[in-house]
């Protein structure tokens, strides 16, 4: 993955996850801004890992699970609510992953 693709993926992930948080009713700027920071800290290394390890299902699953756990702990630092943090992390990452997967499938078709 080149730098432009990495940056584009990061920007779209941040936007998608921000929208997911807003749809979940999150209005606190501290949480919304922290989602940008945690995406910078997790998605860049995740993409480097997947790029280096290979685009195989086990590597993708392992990387995504690690990101979900790290982000849940991150959100917990701000919310002090483990259930909410887990929901935020899981839904943000699942939705952004599925949208990215759908985009990749569409691009392959074109």
Explain this structure.
It is a single chain. By secondary structure, this protein is an all-alpha fold. The protein is built from four helices and no strands.
Structural class: mainly alpha
Which band does the percent of strand residues land in? under 5%
Largest beta-sheet characterization:
none
The helix fraction, in percent, is over 70%
Topology:
Layout: H1 3-23, H2 29-53, H3 57-79, H4 82-109
Helix pairs in contact: 1-2, 1-4, 2-3, 3-4
Task: Tag the structure with descriptive keywords.
4 helices; mainly alpha; globular; 110 residues; 88% helix
Brief sketch in words of this structure:
With 110 residues, the protein is mostly helical. The chain is 88% helix and 0% strand.
């Amino acid at each position: 993955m080149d730098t432009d693709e990495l940056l584009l993926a990061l920007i779209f992930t941040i936007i998608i996850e921000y929208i997911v948080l807003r749809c979940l009713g999150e209005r606190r700027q501290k949480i919304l801004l922290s989602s940008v920071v945690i995406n910078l800290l997790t998605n860049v290394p995740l993409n480097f890992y997947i790029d280096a390890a290979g685009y195989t299902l086990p590597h993708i699953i392992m990387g995504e699970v690690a990101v979900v756990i790290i982000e849940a702990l991150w959100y917990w630092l701000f919310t002090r609510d483990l259930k909410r943090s887990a929901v935020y992390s899981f839904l943000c990452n699942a939705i952004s992953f599925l949208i990215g997967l759908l985009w990749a499938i569409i691009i392959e078709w074109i």
